[in-house]
Design goal:
By secondary structure, the protein is of the alpha+beta class. The chain has helices at 2-15, 17-38, 40-45, 52-69, 72-84, 89-113, 115-118, 138-156, 173-185, 189-209, 213-225, 231-239, 258-268, 277-281, 289-306, 312-329, 333-336, 344-363, 375-383, 390-415, 429-432, 446-457, 486-491, 513-524; strands spanning 126-129, 132-135, 246-248, 254-256, 464-469, 473-478, 496-499, 504-508. Residues 429-445 have low confidence and may be disordered. The chain crosses the membrane at residues 12-36, 56-84, 91-111, 131-152, 164-185, 191-218, 289-307, 327-350, 362-384, 390-408.
Length: 525
């Protein structure tokens, strides 16, 4: 039973990645567009930005970003159903679309046909979604639809009917079953939603009452959950629901969730009447910039300075790549996994430092938001936005850099941590790989060679059940974990090896993991 729940939540976390990636992309589009549409000072300095063509392109980017932000519940429902489906995933996605539309229509029928029922709900709970007046269930409605749609799909996609109805059997029955279920579900979900929203609202009040500690709790929790892969669930619950706030804009429309609220601000260049900009961005990526661009690179420098002199040349590529990946892409795992398993206690301390960074940025009223904790996010949402007060994040970053370097160096020396260059496995990986180009003439492609080595390290093709990935980790389900050779896995250039349970492992490769996954899948075919 424990194994089942671990696998389920691993899959659920992976399901959140696609809509979150789309959300980040939409935020970037809105951020770029808003510079051209609303940044008066920049338009005065660069008159060409006022041209009709430039303004048209900016408006187009603004529209594209809005399409994604305005339909997040639908995107979540599709992504969850697709990821959680066992087979025939495209039909699961179609079923989720039909199910979500049926849910909206079911709730619309309830409040339209029964005026007495409508009077039972506060007027602010109603909204128009995809042209349908319905109950505003936000992202939670999309998540619930995706979960139930996946369950329905897995139950009925192989159903068989008598000959007269055989055409409607199998995968064709998936969207039909979703429509029938969610129209009926829409008759009771508004009442259930009142109960659920009260629970979420209680959580939101708890976060609100935490004051300056709310960003600390968020930042600490996110880093602590990262090795398990469940941080995406944490991010979605905090950032995309009313836990991080419900904004009321001057025209009366409401938006819930920090990411959606900030995107709406970028789109219309108007702040909500009930929230300040620091309150909007306190759970966004600005609070992480002092870590990704300052603290982590300095911790890499601490590992280099404490390494054995004869090993420094060998570990320099690892640490430089990790530092630049953190600064440029905001991907932290390559460096974090160099010390996670060496000293879990230090990783907890590091998580506390993360939380402290978020809290200090909020305490000093930083207004730097966005979805990118890297140089792009700093430039786009900081340098190009005078109202961002980006210098606060830079000042906190300098403090975090000194703190990270000093504390980590002291910790390494005091407890003799086996970080890279001090007796870790990394410097031995090139010697234990076991596969060279001379072993196979067809292995002249470096990517193909890496994929072959990964498969060998995982115990061979017959031992691999499924292969997938998230932003930076290869997620593998194996038949027998005893056949996995961790040393060979590390020799493939991985930055971390995480055995989740007896059959599931995660291997950290950084931003190239999607390419590696495709290469491995190609070799498995």
């Amino acid at each position: 039973m424990k194994k089942y729940y671990v696998q389920f939540f691993q899959m659920l976390s992976r399901a959140f990645i696609t809509p979150i990636a789309l959300l980040s992309f939409a935020s970037l589009l809105l951020g770029v567009a808003s510079l051209f549409l609303w940044h008066e000072r920049l338009r005065e300095l660069l008159p060409f930005m006022n041209s009709g063509v430039i303004q048209y392109i900016a408006s187009l980017l603004n529209t594209v970003g809005s399409v994604i932000m305005d339909n997040l519940p639908l995107l979540f429902s599709i992504s969850l159903a697709f990821t959680l489906a066992k087979n025939e995933r495209e039909y699961a996605a179609l079923g989720a679309v039909c199910g979500y539309l049926a849910l909206l229509m079911g709730m619309h029928a309830l409040i339209e046909i029964n005026p007495n029922v409508r009077e039972m709900f506060p007027e602010k709970i109603f909204t128009t979604t995809l042209g349908i007046e319905t109950v505003n269930t936000g992202v939670v409605g999309g998540i619930v639809t995706g979960l139930f749609s996946a369950l329905i799909h897995n139950k009925v996609y192989q159903v068989k009917f008598p000959v007269a109805l055989a055409f409607f059997g199998g995968v064709r029955f998936v969207p039909l079953a979703n429509v029938m279920f969610f129209v009926a579900f829409g008759q009771c979900f508004p009442f259930l939603w009142i109960f659920m929203s009260n629970i979420i609202n209680s959580a939101a009040m708890g976060v609100s009452h935490a004051g300056v500690f709310a960003p600390f709790i968020y930042g600490f929790g996110e880093r602590l959950l990262l090795p398990t892969g469940l941080h995406q669930i944490w991010n979605t619950v905090i950032r995309d629901t009313m836990v991080s706030g419900v904004a009321i804009f001057p025209d009366g429309h409401t938006v819930e969730g920090a990411r959606a609220i900030f995107a709406e601000y970028l789109k219309i260049n108007v702040l909500p009447v009930n929230m300040t900009l620091p309150d909007i961005v306190k759970f966004l990526r600005g609070g992480q910039i002092p870590i990704t661009m300052f603290a982590l690179p300095m911790m890499a420098l601490a590992m280099y300075h404490t390494a054995k002199p004869e090993q420094r040349a060998k570990i320099k590529p690892l640490l430089l790549t990790g530092a630049f990946t953190s600064i440029i892409a905001g991907v932290t795992e390559p460096l974090e996994f160099t010390f996670l398993f060496v000293s879990p206690v230090w990783y907890v301390i590091y998580s506390l430092i993360n939380g402290l960074s978020w809290m200090l940025c909020y305490m000093f009223h930083s207004q730097l938001g966005g979805t990118e904790a890297n140089i792009i996010g700093l430039v786009l949402y900081g340098f190009l936005r005078p109202e961002s007060r980006f210098w606060i994040n830079l000042a906190v970053g300098v403090g975090m850099a000194l703190c990270g370097y000093g504390l980590f160096r002291m910790w390494i020396v005091r407890f003799d941590l086996k970080t890279p260059g001090r007796g870790s496995d990394y410097e031995q990986t090139i010697d234990i790989l076991g596969i060279t180009q001379s072993d196979d003439r067809q292995a002249s492609d470096p990517l193909k060679l890496k994929a072959m080595a990964i498969i060998k390290g995982l115990g061979g093709k017959d031992n691999i059940s499924t292969v997938d990935c998230c932003y930076s980790r290869l997620r593998v389900c194996v038949n027998d974990i005893a056949l996995v050779d961790e040393q060979v896995i590390k020799a493939t250039g991985s930055m971390g090896y995480i055995p989740v349970d007896d059959n599931n492992i995660q291997i950290v490769y950084g931003t190239t993991v999607d390419t590696i996954r495709n290469a491995v899948k190609k070799q498995l075919q």
